[in-house]
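Hi Y.,

Following your request, here is the sequence exactly as I used it, all 434 residues.
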Amino acid sequence: MKKNFKLYIGLALIGLASSCAPSLDEFEPSKGTADFSKFIAVGNSLTSGYADNGLYLEGQKVAFPNLIAEQLKEVGGGEFTSPFFSQDQENGSGYIKFGGFDTNGNPVMEPVTDKLAVRGLNPEGKPLYTKYTDPIQNLGVPGMRLDMSMAPYVGTVMGNPYFERLLPEGTPATLKYVEYAASHEHTFFTFWLGNNDVLGYATNGAAATEDPTKKLLDLPTFESAYNAFVKALVGTGAKGVVATIPDVTAIPVLNTLTTARLNAAVEAATQGQAKNVYIATKKGPRVATDADLFMLTFPTALLGQPNEAGFPYGIDPRNPIADNYVLDKDEVVEVSNRVKAFNEKIKAIAGANDLAVADVYTFLNKVKSGYNYNGVHISAAFITGNAFSLDGVHLTPMGNAIVANVFIDAINAKYNSKIGKIDVSQYRGVKFPN
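Below is the corresponding structure, written out as tokens. Let me know if you'd prefer a different format.
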């Protein structure tokens, strides 16, 4: 019997962005006790506007700090510049777009590879992006980890290409991201780092690796680095807002491809001869449960492919799904506990430095199962949830607007300011094909 392992994700088009614009409270904007005249944003891909598995101009323009900066203009905010790609290189690093659903109900992703901002390759053959060395205030660098922000050589051609593109030729190789960020004159800042110190580990299934971007940062190193970075930012008397780290197990990259869907695909393809998928764990192979989380990027075409001994991949314990494709239930607990511990340190350090806290962790957990935000339905559902882009990690334009409002709420509460909220209905979720 020929086995045809096709995964029927069956994503229903439920309640896409709709509804009327929210009713925004009328009030007189005021800055309160903070000085917003020189605002900088420090962070990683979320701060830069990275989306749909790439950094490109449309996403850069709606990065949450840019949206906040527009609101700050009403309360004394000054110029806020981002390292935008040019119009003729608007697709930046390249990204993916949604091409609709195939005949089996599976989403089709199409790569965008024209109008790239690639100036060449480094010695390892990895892309180097077009330089942007003019003064900027959005300092978001995709891929930046908290531990790496304290390390030299990250801004070189062999380091982080998104950081390297911001540095003029001749910049000392030893320049650290923390030094780069703190050197920018500022009276106010947003700070959102720490996500990647968990995310890379989680999306690699907590598998053993020598890749430093996929290791789980230990708590003492996190606390020391976070405290040092915040001290560098507040050293001149600046005020600011820091953000908690989202629960990485609550976002589409880890909650879309469920065990139930894989089991159903296996059962259908084998006409009921097999009913379960098997996974590799640190304790040995076993049947997957609902508590195990599969990567959105898991190549389902591998299911049923025999190894050299003839055992079908994923449906025989002698050829289980590899560890890097699944975060098993014990690893879920490990990752979730580490995120909670990091967030406790973030709140403590913020309190010690009299900073506001944007509790994105709590907000996105509320969003996970579905939430009506000012008349717009949002959730952690892949494609249809409005908040997350096609990579299942980063935000849509609407998601950026919502997160910007979480920051604004925190700023207003801490500094007795009155900064206007953003009308999220003016921003899109995932873009559907015409």
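The first helix runs from residue 45 to 48.

Thanks again,
Q.
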